[in-house]
Design brief:
alpha/beta, 7-stranded parallel sheet, two-stranded parallel ribbon, single chain, 326 residues
């Protein structure tokens, strides 16, 4: 399944210089693919702690630079001359952040300040930030609306909330326009299934394709607004194209529907013809939230966003990719 990005976004990005931090990672690589197809000139900055340079193989007009967002000198160099910055570079994983809070603070918060400072110095037009639905914590109110108070239940969530605050601060203090896009449970091809902290769809795919029972932490009745990665690419492109300032406000990016982890396991097992592989349940993990569902009214109003790929089509494409690459 491939999206015709030209049909959606025309020639707006032809020749436009864009920096993608974390561009060799799962979401970053999909952003680079879309931008490449749209004729942008893309620089990727990634230290490969979570990404792979192979994710960028064959992309036209994409330059890869190995390095960290903690390297201010290098950041200044790669940001210079760019019109836009897509800041995706971060350490992910709620459970890992619980285990390594200082490291996560340094990379995810100090790193974000560094990116904003480089963008400010380079007179970048707009920065988009990979914010997270984890900002909502375990509030029982559904759907999640951006005006709800934030409630960090993990260091990772706290990092992402701090990043959002920095986006509004830089928009308010320096006139650097920013957008904080709150991603909800993104999945798709190229998502790493081999990490101890792998996202649930990637982890389930790896287990099922190996003939093993998937592991569910908790009773499996927790639900998520699973969002196929092309929707995130579309949202970022819409944010960059916005003719009016966004001002750093948080914006939910999701599909606007929720599916339980038990339902997910059942559907994925059926997709590979292994309904006999019933899940193994283990204790809940610290920092995990029970339910997640996005209200998309602000995304539609500010960006003109609506999902371009639904859950079922996205899951089918994802399973096909894992099966082909196992």
């Amino acid at each position: 399944m491939s999206i015709n990005w030209r049909a959606l976004h025309g020639d707006f990005f032809d020749g436009v210089r864009v920096l993608v931090t974390g561009g060799a990672g799962f979401i970053g690589a999909h952003l680079c693919t879309g931008l490449s197809e749209l004729g942008a000139r893309v620089t990727v900055l990634d230290d490969l702690s979570g990404g792979q340079s192979e994710n960028l193989a064959g992309l036209a007009n994409v330059e890869f630079v190995k390095g960290s967002i903690l390297d201010q000198t290098l950041l200044a160099k790669v940001t210079n001359g760019c019109r836009f910055v897509l800041h995706q570079g971060a350490l992910g994983s709620v459970p890992r952040s619980v285990a390594e809070p200082r490291l996560f603070q340094e990379v995810n918060v100090t790193g974000t300040v560094n990116v904003l400072e480089a963008a400010r110095a380079a007179k970048v037009s707009r920065v988009t930030f990979a914010a997270s639905s984890s900002a909502y914590g375990d509030s029982e109110t559904l759907p999640k609306i951006e005006t709800m108070p934030t409630s960090a239940k993990s260091p990772y969530a706290a990092n992402k909330i701090a990043g959002e605050a920095l986006m509004t601060a830089y928009a308010g203090s320096y006139g650097l326009d920013t957008a904080a896009l709150r991603y909800f449970n993104i999945f798709g091809p190229k998502q790493n299934a081999n990490s101890a902290y792998a996202a649930v769809i990637a982890a389930f795919a790896k287990s099922l394709l190996a003939g093993e029972r998937p592991v569910i932490f908790g009773d499996g009745e927790q639900s998520r607004d699973f969002t196929y990665v092309d929707n995130v690419v579309h949202a970022n492109l819409l944010a960059l194209k916005s003719e009016r300032p966004i001002g750093g406000v948080p914006i939910n990016i999701a599909c606007g529907r929720r599916i339980s982890v038990n339902q997910l396991a059942e559907r994925m097992a059926a997709a590979v013809g292994r309904t006999d592989l019933l899940p193994v349940h283990k204790p809940e993990r610290a920092g995990d939230v029970k339910h997640s569902l996005a209200d998309l009214a602000r995304a539609e109003m500010l960006l003109g966003y609506e999902p371009i790929t639904g859950f079922e089509d996205g899951l089918a494409a994802t399973m096909k990719w894992y099966a082909a690459t196992k």
